[in-house]
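Q: Structure for this?
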Amino acid sequence: MAKRKPVSIRDVARESNASLTTVSLVLNKRDGRISSATRERVLKAVDKLGYVPNRLAQSLQAQKSGFLAILVPELRHVFADPYFGELISSIEEAANEAGYKLLLEVAHKKDIEQKRHVELFQRRFVDGLLCLGSTNRDEFLGDFVGSDNAVVIVNNHLPALSLNSVMCDYRQAGVLAAEHLIDLGHKEIAYIHGAAEVQTASDLRESFEARLASSGIKMPKNHAADGLYTEEGGAAAAAQLLKTNPKITAIMAGNDKMAIGAIAGLKNAGLSVPNDVSVVGCDDLQPSIYADPPLTTIHTPLDEVGHRACSAVLALFDGKQDRVTETLPVSLTLRNSTCGPRKIR
Amino acid sequence: MAKRKPVSIRDVARESNASLTTVSLVLNKRDGRISSATRERVLKAVDKLGYVPNRLAQSLQAQKSGFLAILVPELRHVFADPYFGELISSIEEAANEAGYKLLLEVAHKKDIEQKRHVELFQRRFVDGLLCLGSTNRDEFLGDFVGSDNAVVIVNNHLPALSLNSVMCDYRQAGVLAAEHLIDLGHKEIAYIHGAAEVQTASDLRESFEARLASSGIKMPKNHAADGLYTEEGGAAAAAQLLKTNPKITAIMAGNDKMAIGAIAGLKNAGLSVPNDVSVVGCDDLQPSIYADPPLTTIHTPLDEVGHRACSAVLALFDGKQDRVTETLPVSLTLRNSTCGPRKIR
DNA sequence: ACGGACAGATAAATCCTTTTACTTCCTAAA
DNA sequence: TTTAGGAAGTAAAAGGATTTATCTGTCCGT
């Protein structure tokens, strides 16, 4: 299988007895000044030779790659996480729509150390970058502050760095979740939180606690536990919380994953959800539908976030916009993991 | 924020009073014939100007893009599916290791109609292509047969098309699952299958039924139902199967997703898993661990598949290999969704 | 018959690197 | 003194497209 030499615009020019310029003009429909006879000749040659323009040459000349990169953290099987998956899917839709292709970038430590993330732009790999799962610890993102690179933080924001972002309103999420539990009559409420270095996680927790407080419900220190953003962590946290504080009747988790883990942990401890303990999640990803019981959770419009983030990064690249910070409203999705508190224990 | 003009090798040459060639030689370490004084001058200039080579120009000249594409089917939220996610993660690892970047391609119908998948190569977008979730209906893959493009079908094979592939042994999977249920003493066994146009799905089913048959266990037509490769489908299929054939004591599902759905469907119908009905899945993806009960399933080494598929596509591109068909062994992962059949009903 | 306008087409520059094929200048051997 | 050979370096081509500036003609008006 010898590699056939690909046809170039030169071959088309020769075949059709026209100049490179003419061929290029015809192909790019800037052919106002080309006679239809010539145009036909050129198109026939293109067809005959099966010519397709080499996009490396095009990009080199146009000074744009036509690629956007998606940067995800270096976690085990990160792409198998439906949170990232849903975002990626929606970004892909929008990118495809706009004629862009998507590059996958994992923030491998060694790449970051070598400033590969900056090279992504310098070396013309991409026109824009969408950062998923960023945390306050990702200092390398500072390299983009003040640069003219089109970078958008997706579904998060970093108070320490002035960067563009498109995200859900996690403060509103906290309020909605709190109000739901308050409305159901819960008083002894616990919280399973994700990593503190994720700003939206802090936002969620703070607003949740603040809303409880404003209704006179206090959350002591020992009513909070770290769920490590994993099912295992959620399960362990739930088990421990109820062991330490048997009076707890409801648990809010920082995301669906931990909530689902929490349900498993509670069941394991012989408790029934929601009859003994109500559980609320946050994200509303597909697995929450198939949880047992199906999870009551805060719906975050990740599709919308993905689409807007993609539009934003393109607007930035095109210079149509200078700065983007969008916050999208969330809502409560009621399923079967919550009910009123048990009367007596 | 005006876009700064990027530094090119020209600027470095000027700054260091050397020729383009010299700079290039130094940068590419083919500098045997460059004096160390000159080398130093060049490197200093590179450093001072912050020069990084433009990879579009490099790729254009080298006639290779340094990209591999991952082609996935056009399914809603395809990236949120942990099956694809796990494969993508492992492919990414291998690609990164080899210095390659990954491009995401969704097989959108309109793109396929326009032969965009072939253009991926013709236009030098990628050096190789990894096809996930392909089916016997994907006739467009025929465009790659006999071409010199580096294309690998990942975790599947297409009998109608002579293409490279790396996959798990789904025939062995069927045998292992069947033997497990036979060993437990089951006689009334049902099957929830995925799409018939997925070859490995047929392989799995056929070998499963054949193994049962060789132990004298027949599976009548009405012991099989389509689970549509979704949780919902699995749930519906399980419910229907048990309604029609109340004597069924075990169900094998074509993948974990349908198995988890089946468990939900059975529970919903008031049946207990595994005490009333055993359920076996196939894939061994993360959610199967957190199913309730944790799912007994066939472990398919997707990580290994991803790694090997990536190596294969690179070997093909480099011309080190002409044809690849690998089949990797699977194993049974025992969890709690199976036990012996209930005695009486 | 001459200048201007316009249609149709093209040569050459540009984007940025790598690589091939020299050119110079020395040194050491004959 | 010539000459072969090595060391150090560079001009130019190639890779494939787009775009700018320019060049022929032709036709019209005066």
